[in-house]
Specification:
Two copies of one chain form a homodimer.
Chain A: H1 3-11, H2 40-46, H3 61-71, E1 83-87, H4 91-99, E2 112-119, H5 121-130, H6 139-162, E3 166-170, H7 177-183, E4 190-199, H8 213-216, E5 217-219, H9 227-241, H10 252-255, H11 263-270, H12 279-285
Antiparallel strand pairs in A: 1-2, 2-4, 3-4
Chain lengths: 291, 291
């Protein structure tokens, strides 16, 4: 399948339809004819999909170590390296983590399970050891550590996808964040960003169609004047290939049964219910200053 | 160069030295002999380096569009797609953004410059249009949007690296976040996470050595009892291949000239000075509730 076709599948639209000016420029320069068709990295990323069903086969430990070594090669904000991952290898510990949240019961049989954490403790310990003041106890530090955890986790996912494994990031591990935090023995200034399951997929998971790039890519100024119209078109494109059954509509007792139940309807219903409203309280207990 | 050698270069240690149990398992299963040596995605990630010096040659517009299409294939928290990127194509606008911050003067000649933003506005607009309550006005929403922006940006970086381009993420764009935000016309509930320069590199940038994985990868419980000792070894390994000249030591008037000026000394000196302490205030003005 060509790269252009992979893009068309990912967006339900050919690439040219996203941009007002599209098409191949004519140029004599040396770099403009770089072959992308046989670029397996672009193919891996464009075909990314999360999997929840895995073969029972274990993943070789040497491969896991290779993937971690690859993931932590990701760029790091100011070279601070504020990421830690906790691998859950003890089955009874995994059971305890899962037992408090039925939404993640399916993770019980995933070959590997881990929790990616933002780690702002390391730099604080280094400052303390040297007796230098840590002068960045504010919101920027919280965000940088969280973003870096996401960056390293995504690098792990791409690396895993490239060898044929599949992953599923699980933000629901944060639903019971205080008990998870105790279970993992997380000290102050460390917190979970997402869980991740990894395994050899037992079925080919479907890719998730993305918003068109004329919504997400802006030029010089942020501009979402046309966004709602474009989202409506997107809802129709998505629904045409992946209409959820009526019984999967969220909260019909509250919002009724929608004729067109697209991305925006599903997301809006999801976010009409508070999720993890205690997260800020937990983060303050982990001694982050969010000012 | 073998993958094992790339890892050794990245960490200054062979992979086996990171883990108490290391080595190839003997297994008869089908997946355990996946060839990793010719896996160009692993190689691309392991060889990642940020570049600040670029050839003057432009990047084909069709290639930029392909990279954006690839980047936005990244996983998205609850499929909410809370990321926007603003490309700065107007040279006078780029000059205005750069002029307020001498630390990023070098970005003036990068072929491409963009700002990755966390975008929590889209889902709020969708809820408003449908007249459903947005029930997640708390810290979780702020963090999810920021993390997703980092995830998509990193996916862009890996895609760009894979075609031979090089990038440099620039968190310093947040040093003057209010003026940047006005320049980009960012509405409420949208904020910059990082700038990014992209171009064809004019020199081969050096990779940044990473902390050993026995600091960053934990098993079942978070444990950093040995971390400071291991950081000291890491400082020596890093210094052995990349000793910064004495005049590059930060704040000698305050902390003196260190004999061993490794990673930890440099990072601790950096964070002894407040950076972006007004970020929280700006985020609240963008109408995020951080409770």
């Amino acid at each position: 399948m060509t790269i252009q076709r992979l893009i068309e599948d990912r967006y339900g639209l050919p690439l040219c339809d996203h941009f007002p000016q599209c098409g191949e420029e004519h140029s004599q320069s040396g770099h403009t004819t770089q072959p992308t068709e046989d670029n397996s990295t672009l193919r891996t990323i464009l075909q990314h999909a999360s999997a929840r069903k895995f073969e029972s086969e274990k993943i070789q430990e040497s491969l896991m170590q290779l993937l971690f070594a690859t993931a932590f090669s990701a760029p790091s904000k100011s070279d601070l390296q504020q990421v830690s991952v906790v691998r859950i290898t003890d089955p009874s510990q995994r059971k305890r983590i899962i037992s408090s949240n039925p939404k993640i019961a399916w993770t019980e049989h995933a070959p590997q399970f881990m929790v990616w954490c933002a780690d702002n403790r390391r730099i604080r310990k280094v400052c303390e050891e040297k007796d230098y003041p840590f002068a960045n106890d504010h919101l920027d530090s919280f965000m940088n550590a969280a973003v870096d955890a996401g960056i390293v986790m995504q690098t792990f996912i791409i690396a895993a996808d490239s060898v044929g494994l599949r992953c599923c990031p699980i933000s629901e591990v944060r639903d019971n964040i205080e008990s998870l935090s105790m279970e993992l023995n997380l000290p102050e200034h460390v917190f979970p960003v997402a869980g991740l399951c990894v395994g050899w997929p037992s079925e080919s998971p479907s890719t998730s169609m993305r918003l068109p790039l004329n919504i997400t890519v802006h030029v010089n100024k942020y501009d979402d004047e046309e966004a709602l119209f474009r989202i409506s078109d997107y809802d129709h494109r998505r629904e045409a290939i992946d209409q959820p059954p009526t019984e999967k509509q969220r909260q019909p007792e509250r919002f009724g049964i929608a004729d067109i139940y697209g991305w925006s309807e599903d997301r809006a219903r999801q976010y009409s219910v508070p999720l993890r409203s205690g997260f800020g309280c937990y983060i303050r207990k982990q001694r982050f200053n969010l000012c």
